[in-house]
Amino acid sequence: MKMNQMINKMEHFLKRKAIIEYESSNPKDMKITEADYTIQQEILQIRPKIFIDEGLERFCYWAKNEVSKDELKIWTKK
Predict the structure, then answer these.
(1) Pick from 54, 37, 56: which is nearest to 45 by CA?
(2) pLDDT digits (tens, 9 = 90+) for 45-61
(3) Residue 15 φ/ψ region, left for φ over 0, alpha for ψ in the -120 to 50 degree band, beta for the rest
(4) pTM (predicted TM-score)
(5) Mapping DSSP to helix (H, G, I), strand (E, B) and coil, where does residue 65 land?
(6) CA-to-CA separations, 59 to 16, 76, 77, in angstroms, rounded
(7) In angstroms, rounded to a whole number, what is the distance separating the alpha carbons of residues 23 and 26?
(8) Phi and psi based region of residue 45 (left: phi greater than 0; alpha: psi -120 to 50; beta: remaining)
(9) Taking a C-beta distance cutoff of 8 angstroms, is the pair 19, 75 a contact?
C-alpha cells in the first residue's frame, strides 16, 4: 500500500482531511522495499489476524477517543 493510499483511508475513517507537508527526499532514504514475511510465517507460525484496512480503522477509532481534540487538530483539518 502506498503512503497516499493509507492517508486517504485514514482521512475516511477520521472524517477529517490530513495536513500533508511534502519534503524533498533524503538521498539515503530507501526508495523501494519488498517486505517478505515468509520466514515469520513459516518458522515462527505468526500470521496477521487482521487486514490493513481494519487495523487502520481500529487505530483511527483509538486516535479519536484517546488523543486530545487539540492534538488531533494539529494533524488534521476539517
Answers:
(1) 37
(2) 877 789 999 999 999 98
(3) left
(4) 0.65
(5) helix
(6) 14, 15, 18
(7) 9
(8) left
(9) yes
The span from the CA of 20 to the CA of 40, in Å, is 33
Dist CA 46 CA 48 (whole Å): 7
pLDDT in tens, 16-74: 888 888 888 888 888 887 878 787 788 888 777 899 999 999 999 888 888 777 776 66
Alpha-carbon gap, residue 3 to 76, rounded angstroms: 16
- Give the cell for residue 66: 484517546
